[in-house]
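Problem 12. The chain below contains 361 residues. Write out its predicted structure in C-alpha cell notation.
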Amino acid sequence: MPNSYQKNYTPRLSDKGLYNSSFEHDACGVGLVANVKGKKSHQVIVQGLEVLINLGHRGASGADPETGDGAGLIIQLPHDFVVKEFGGQGITVPTEGHYGLGMVFLPTDDQQRARCQQIIASVVAREGHTLLGWRDVPVSPDAIGELSARAMPFIRQFVVADGNHSDDQFSFEQRLFVIRKQIERAVEETELENKDDFYICSLSTNKVVYKGLTMAHQLEGFYHDLANEDVVTSFALVHSRFSTNTLGSWKLAHPYRFVIHNGEINTVRGNTNWMTARENNFVSDLLGDDIKKLLPITTPGQSDTATLDNALEVLLASGRSLEHSMMMLIPEAWGDHIPMDQAKRDFYEYHSSMMEPWDGP
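Solution.
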C-alpha cells in the first residue's frame, strides 16, 4: 500500500472520540422516509430511492461488480395506479381495501409459470375469493448485473377481490395471509424443476414490495413503476443487503412482508425448531380452523430475517398488535437485576413460556 494512502486515510480509522475499532463490522443498510401527516406523494418514493442509493456502501456485490446481494423497498399500495394499470386491460378493480395486490416472482419457463399461476387461481377460488387478473411488471434487465439478469424470475402482479364483500379490511388481510401460505405450500409440493424461483413478495390490501437481486442504485432503473408519478405513498422503507449467513438471491432480498433487518439472528435454528414443535398446539379465536392452513409457519432454506418475518406474520394475524408481537419476539433484558416496571416484567415472564427470544447482534 502506498505511503500516501496510509498518510491520508489511516488517521481516520484511529480510535478517537466515540469511535472504537473493536465495534467495526459489516451490515445491511436500512432507511425510512415518511410523511408524518400521512400524506401520500410520489416524492416520498423519490426520497426513499435517494436514501437507498446513499446506502449503497452498506450493500455488497460479488465477482460480477454489477450484481448485488439485493435491494428493495416497501410502500403503501398505490390504489389509483392499480386501478389505472389493470383498468387498461378491462379489469375493474374494487374500491380500496376490498382487494389485495400480489407481487410475485414466477419461473421463466412458460409451462412452469402457467402451473404456478393455476395454483394461485385454484387456491383463491377455493377460499371463496376472485382472482381478477394479471399484470406483467415492466422491468429493464439491462439495468442490473449479468449474473442477476440470468437468475431473474418472471415478475407479475395479480389482484384478488374480496369474495365476502366485507368492510372488515383486517379480516380480508387475514384471508390473504391464509391464501398465500396455502399457495406456497402447494407450489412446494409440486415436482416443478424451477419451483424455487416462485416467491410471493407481498399479497396485501395495503402494501406492496418491490425488491430484487439488484444493487441499491439499480432498483429505480429496473422497476419502471418506481418512476411512475401515479405510484404514491406516505412512507418508503428501504433496504440494501449485505448477505452474511445466506447467499444473495431474488427472493432473499429485503424487505419481507413486514420486516427489514441489518444484522444476524444467531438463535434462528433454535427459534425455528421450537416454533415447529409448537405448531400442533396453535389455537386462534380469530383464525379458527384456518390456523392449520398456515402450517408450516417457517420453511427450510430461508434467511434468518425471512424466518423472523414468518413468525411476526402469524402473531399479527392472530390479532396481536405490532408492539405486542415484537416484544414477544425480541424482548429487552428483564432479569431481576434490571430496573423495570413490574407490569412489564410480568409481561415478559408470561410470554417467555410461549416464545424464546430471537437474539443476535
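Discussion. Strands lie at 29-34, 71-76, 99-106, 130-136, 154-161, 199-204, 207-212, 235-240. Students who got a different answer should revisit the alignment rule from Section 12.3.
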